[in-house]
Amino acid sequence: MKVIDESMSIYQILSEYPFLLKIFKQHGMGKFENREVLKKLGPLLKLKTALSMVSVNKDSFIELLNQAVLDSEAKGDFTLADSPERQKELTLLALLPCGMKMPFNRALDDFSAEYSRQMNNVLHSLVEGNVNHELSYYAYIDLVTSIDELPDIIVSSDINSFYHKPFQENFLNKEYFVNLASSPMNIDFESIGFADPRGQFTMISANLLVLVTIDELMKNNTRPESWEDLLKDEFRNRVVMRGQDGFFCNGVLLPFYRLYGMEGIKKLASSVYTGLHPSEMVKMIDSKKDDVPPMYVMPHFFAKKIQDKSRITINIPSEGAIVSPVQMLVKKSAVERVKEITDFLCGKEFGEISARAFFPTTNPEVENKLEGIKLYWLGWDFLMNTDIGELKKEIEEVFNKRFKETGGVV
To answer: Where on the phi/psi map is residue 371: left (φ > 0), alpha (ψ -120 to 50), or beta?
Structure first.
């Protein structure tokens, strides 16, 4: 590698190593993200001069840049879908609900800048959308057998492979992880028994699933008062839930199974017209067409994105908004090494960011402002005493069979 020194121009550095722009931005030099600024000013401005202008320690910053180049050359860029085995090179892996990814990234960028300055080290992290990996990364996790194959910190969403029997037997039962959440946690979650009794998962937040109805399309039907109402024959092909290409959201299917059994899964499949990403649901609702389904099971975050709220109702069924968890796994062996990172993820500042984005936090110092929203949580007894992986396969087979038989649209 070519060693970066103070005499090099900003243009020379960022042309050769464009991935270093993130570090420049973290240290107050985000203007170089503008290509015109980089082309006009970059060739004239030496690194030494640029650092003096923003009062950044020259030696520490140059060391940071060179270490980032070394790390990049050692590991290369990779995506989790293409190279899941390379997750062990990361300190932090985060697979997040779509609505949470952007505020998380912004907060992490700010934190990483301060972390780099204080620790004189780069935080190796990868943040991706959870939905992209339900059929890829999580299948890989079922095959992992060594704790050394995992990052020090994993933040994930939904009832995923970390709840499956292989992961439970290989890792959870051996108590490789530690719960770092406050106890008691925020009353909104303490009241539903959200804390992991085994002390393995650190429960951070939740993606709340609600029922949105387009009231003018409900016709003579009254709005459902409970999740069970969606199973009625009169609602056949009138519901949209998250799904694509024959895959449907386990965050909905598992609670429906828990509440209403496999017969409930069959009836739900009859009621579902199609599966869409929540952003597509919002577009469908905002289209104001009268030939679209009238009911949508979707995250609270996306429900708040609907433009004309006079036409819709965000319903909280009597059982409660379904809690799809956002959880963290932290290796016991890494607790001291990653303390600054986990303190941030469990802290008040990030909790407030999460809550403002309609992802209520477990941090007890934060007011979630749920406005009376009741929560429904599957419960740890069910999760610990059920072969979740096998149950998902059974539910998927039953659901898809009935979905196709009753006219569901893929």
So the answer is: left
pTM summary value: 0.81
Residues 6+ apart with CB under 8 A from 312: 212, 213, 214, 215, 285, 306
Asked if 167 and 347 touch (Cβ cutoff 8 Å), the reply is: no
Cβ-in-10-Å burial (0-12, 13-18, 19+) of 22 comes to middle
Beta strands 295-299; 239-244: pairing state = parallel
- For residue 262, which of 129, 394, 69 has the smallest C-alpha distance? 394
- Cβ atoms 95, 130 nearer than 8 A: yes
With cut-offs at 50, 70 and 90, classify the pLDDT of residue 73.
low
Q: Quick one: tokens of 54?
A: 């923003």
Pick from 76-80, 234-238, 358-362: least confident: 76-80
Q: How far apart are CA 207 and CA 2, in angstroms?
A: 45
Residue-averaged pLDDT of the chain: 90
Say how far residue 261 (Cα) sits from the centre of its chain.
Answer: 28
Q: Are 165 and 390 in contact (CB under 8 A)?
A: yes
Q: Does the pLDDT at position 105 exceed 90?
A: no
CB of 255 within 8 A of CB of 241? no
Q: Is 331 left (phi over 0), alpha (psi -120 to 50) or beta?
A: beta
pLDDT category of residue 3 using cuts at 50, 70 and 90: confident
pLDDT digits over 151-168, tens only?
999 999 999 999 999 999
